[in-house]
Amino acid sequence: QETGNAEVRFMRLDLASLRSVRAFASAFLRQEPHLHLLINNAGVSAGGTTEDGFSLSFQVNHLGHFLLTRLLLARLQSCAPSRVVIVASRAHCAGRLRLDALGRPPPGPLSTFQDYCDSKLANVLHARELATRLQGTQVTSYAVHPGFVNTELFRHAPLWLQPLILPLAWLFFRDAAEGARTSLHCATHEGLERFSGRYFADCRPQEPWPPARDDRLAGALWEASERLVGLGEAEGSPSP
């Protein structure tokens, strides 16, 4: 109603539930024959555990998006050229992926913040590995740093920290429309295919932190993520 566009449809999806992700993908594939663009935009910074037993931030920010993307890949390929945009963050520079404990809350007093940073590193690596596996398919992928945006990302921050964060957000953070610019650039700008797998900020490709350029780590994260979300060998597998 707000957009005035009768083609906008709402479909429920809870990334904190792998069951919900599977139900959404199944319903979408039944109802929609075309898919040219997938923007994995959701993000949360909060403690807690999901119904699947993973830390909330890591599942919502990475594992849920990973499963969703895999389940929709065949449709993206059949509708190629198509694109996947994964909203990451410059916070990936503080990420440390422990593959033997992936999806578990990191230890330490800053566990929630570290979990968020870890998920953002996973986002950048996901886009990188996706591009590698989809070479020659005309499906391209991009990781995006939207800038520091005044959204409700920090609504779950501790009460003692909110009086500090909220004034800073209003004074210095970008509004949501400005924060969407780089995502929209990667979604719609012509001629970006040669940058598939790259990390973008301020509407241009930039070099991410060194661990986010580690191809071996990207491949290992992909395989570990497959196991955690329960993907079989054939289900959602990229095909050239």
UniProtKB/TrEMBL annotation:
Pfam family, one: adh_short
Coiled-coil annotated residue ranges, if any: none
Alphabetical keyword list: Oxidoreductase
Domain of life: Eukaryota
InterPro entries per record: NAD(P)-bd_dom_sf (IPR036291), SDR_fam (IPR002347)
One Gene Ontology term of the molecular function aspect: oxidoreductase activity
SUPFAM superfamilies, per the entry: NAD(P)-binding Rossmann-fold domains
Oxidoreductase in keyword set: yes
Protein family per UniProt: Belongs to the short-chain dehydrogenases/reductases (SDR) family.
UniProt-listed PANTHER family: DEHYDROGENASE_REDUCTASE SDR FAMILY MEMBER 13, PHOSPHATIDYLINOSITOL-GLYCAN BIOSYNTHESIS CLASS F PROTEIN-RELATED
Protein name (record): DHR13 reductase
Organism field: Corythaixoides concolor
Originating gene: Dhrs13
